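The aim of this short unit is practical: by the end, you should be able to scan a pair of folded records and say something sensible about each. We start with the first protein, listed as its amino acid sequence and then its structure tokens.
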Amino acid sequence: MASGAPWTKRGMEPPRINLLPGHIRERRLIRRQRVGIGAAAAALLVLLGIWYVVESRTLAEAREDAERERQVAVDLRARRVRLQPFADMDAQIAAARRMQTDVYAREIRMSGVMRDLSAIVPSNVWLTKMTASLTTAADAGAAPAVGTTPAGAQAPTGTTPGSPGASSPVASLTFAGAGFGHVDVGRFMRTLASGPTKDGQRVYLNPYFTSSQRSVEPAETPTVTFSASVDLSQAAFSGRFQADRQTGASTP
């Protein structure tokens, strides 16, 4: 019988017969497996080595960055120590400004009041005495004084608009003076009623005269003596060193 012909025609490989003993075949198989495992282990070691090198370089760079950051932190702490006196001084200045704002919050410059009166008092009326009484912030926040009304509250019984103490005044002036006639005294009071304004608010409120008497002693030019009072609104405050609500700047 011709060898190999039928297998070739059928497209199949001829059968192979291994005449080696079984234990030799097993040793060869084990050797091939060991070689494969060794190659895989070597490849894994190479990959682990590459990964170790990359991670070591990354770790070194991270340590360098951390060292730079620590140095920056040390420099910043040293700079903060050097600048701390200036921060303390700035805090003291801010505290002094707040105190200044509180102290001048209710300041009324009497020089301005005297200037207004010099322009308001008619030439035929003169003042002989003037006293001023101020309403403190504590009084404004506590129970109102007789004849005064806190802002936003209803006027107490007996206090009518235009009378002394109405419209929550912050101060009051009491005058004593003389003039050539009752008409002159009345003109002085009307001038006070239409006196100067500040930011659209009247400075002088509730002008009121309590007495006006003609002198009984004979004289070439008869005169009248009078006593009167006028209240001051919040517009009378000087506003010095008060921070503007929009700009934050203070008015000297």
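Turning to the second protein, read its sequence before its tokens, just as you did above.
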Amino acid sequence: MLRGEKVLLRSRIESDVKVLHVELYDDVFTRMRTDNRAWRPLSPDSELSPFRMSDPTDDFVSFSVEELSKGHELAGAAVLHGIDEHNRSAHIGISLRPAFRGRGLGIDTVRVLCEYGFRIRGLHRIGIETLSDNDAMLRTAERVGFVREGVWRKAAWVNGDFVDEAFFGMLVGEWDERTGRNGTVQRRLDELVDEAGLESFPASDPPAL
């Protein structure tokens, strides 16, 4: 288990699967904005369900997210995907259940994933990619300390139109500067403000590159 200030990241259990699938996958419009593949109907019991239980692999680790202040209630899902052990890089994805958005849980979840990636997996670089109009995720990335590195123009097909994607990066040295040697995040005043919006970007599957 990985503990932050507001969230706990743990392994997926069977009772999580249906809740995550129904609230995050069966919400077709939101899912189209968080996955670069076309949505299709799937049962929570399907082996193709993005929230099924599975063992971690060398390049993909998934977590269920609990909100600590709500009696460890299931809040969503988080992943570190595209883990490249040679280049020591990976990408972050999170998806929060609708009732848990707007509480700043996305910021804390990203912080915990960074701590895991940099301090436990020994990564050098972590990336975030999200739609350029996903203001909540843009703010989350920037407040955690990610650097906006550019835009892929009209790179995502979403609900009948092409949309720009923004991409961000964080290097281990930048993370060390923000957190100090003991890993305690040095929070800025503006990070105390609760996030609004989706607080969601690809969390269940790596992009098809």
